[in-house]
Design a protein that fits this description.
Elements (H helix, E strand, L loop, with lengths): L2 E2 H8 L3 H9 L6 E2 L6 E3 L1 H15 L4 H8 L3 H33 L14 E5 L2 E10 L1 H18 L2 E2 L4 E7 L7 E10 L9 E4 L2 E9 L6 H13 L8 E7 L11 E7 L2 H5 L2
Antiparallel strand pairs: 1-3, 2-3, 4-10, 5-8, 5-9, 6-8, 7-8, 7-11, 10-12, 11-12
Helix pairs in contact: 5-6
C-alpha cells in the first residue's frame, strides 16, 4: 500500500513538515514520483516512523537516531545500555540541582553539625577489592559507583566493607574531571583471574570524617595535609574517600558521612 504525504501524516499523527525534515535527514526514504514530485510512503515507513518516535522519546538526537536505525538488534541493545548510563548521569545531576533549589526556597531544619576533623592514625590491613577506573566529573562519579555495585551484585561476592573512591589526579585540561578509581572490598573465597580485582597492600594511613554534602569536603583534605605537615610526615599516595552514608542510603546530602584517608610514608615512623 502506498500513501501520499497527507494521508501518511494523518495515519502517523505527525506533521508534513516533520516528515519532510525526516526525509532531509535521511531517516525516511519515501518513493518519489519524478513526474509530479509527490512522495509516497509504505507500511515499512510506518514502522520506521514508530521507531523514530520511540527513539525521540528516549532522548536520542537525530544523528543518533539515524545510526540506530541502521543497527541490528544486538547493537541496539548495546546502544540502549549506553543511553541508560547517560540518562542516569543526567538524572542524578538534575536531582541534585532540584534538591538544592528546594532547600533555597524552603531550607530544611537540620541539626547544625560542625566538622571537627579529628585526624586518626592507623594501619590498614591488606584487602582485595573489585575496581573500576575512569576519568569522570562529579555527576558521572555517582554513575560509576552504581556500575560498580551492579558488577559486584552480578558476581554474588561477599562484600567486606564500604565502597570507596581513589582520586588519582585532576585532569590538566578540565579541572572538573578526575582520574578516579572506585572499589568495593570483597572476601575472596577462591582464586579469581578478573583483572578488575586488585590487592591493596598493608599501609600506614591517616584519616578523618566529613559530615554533610561534598561542597566543603576540601576542609577534610586540608586537615590531613596540616596534620602530616605539623607531625613531620609525608603523604604517600592518592586520597581515598570511603562512603558510610551516601545516595544509596539517603537523598539528603546533609546526612552524608564520608571518611577521607591517605597513606603516609612508613619510614617516617621509624624515626620517632
Amino acid at each position: 500500500m502506498l500513501y501520499k504525504i497527507g494521508e501518511f501524516s494523518k495515519i502517523n499523527k505527525i506533521s508534513q513538515r516533520m516528515l519532510r525534515y525526516y526525509d532531509e535527514k535521511s531517516l525516511l526514504k519515501p518513493r518519489k514520483d519524478e513526474v509530479n514530485g509527490y512522495r509516497y510512503y509504505t507500511n515499512d515507513d510506518i514502522e520506521t516512523v514508530s521507531k523514530i518516535k520511540l527513539l525521540r522519546k528516549y532522548l536520542f538526537s537525530m544523528e543518533e537516531i539515524k545510526k540506530v536505525l541502521e543497527m541490528d538488534s544486538e547493537a541496539i541493545k548495546d546502544r540502549f545500555e549506553q543511553k541508560i548510563a547517560e540518562l542516569n548521569e543526567k538524572a542524578i545531576e538534575y536531582r541534585d540541582v532540584i534538591e538544592e533549589m528546594k532547600n533555597y526556597i524552603q531550607p530544611k531544619k537540620n541539626i547544625d553539625r560542625v566538622n571537627a576533623y579529628d585526624v586518626l592514625w592507623g594501619v590498614r590491613k591488606p584487602f582485595h577489592a573489585f575496581c573500576l577506573r575512569k576519568v569522570v566529573d562529579e555527576a558521572a562519579l555517582e554513575v560509576l559507583l552504581e556500575q560498580l555495585h551492579n558488577h559486584v551484585n552480578k558476581m554474588n561476592a561477599v562484600v567486606t566493607g564500604k565502597a570507596f573512591s581513589v582520586f588519582h589526579s585532576v585532569e590538566e585540561s578540565d579541572v572538573y574531571q578526575y582520574d578516579v578509581e572506585v572499589g568495593q572490598p570483597l572476601l575472596l573465597e577462591r582464586e579469581i583471574t578478573d583483572s578488575r580485582i586488585k590487592c591493596f597492600e598493608e599501609t600506614n594511613y591517616i584519616s578523618t570524617i566529613h559530615m554533610g554534602n561534598y561542597d566543603s569536603i576540601s576542609f577534610a583534605y586540608s586537615a590531613l595535609y596540616d596534620w602530616a605537615h605539623s607531625h613531620g610526615y609525608s603523604l604517600d599516595g592518592p586520597f581515598i574517600e570511603k562512603y558510610y552514608t551516601d545516595r544509596s542510603v539517603t537523598i539528603d546530602q546533609n546526612e552524608f558521612v564520608t571518611e577521607v584517608s591517605i597513606a603516609i610514608d612508613p619510614h617516617q615512623y621509624e624515626k620517632t
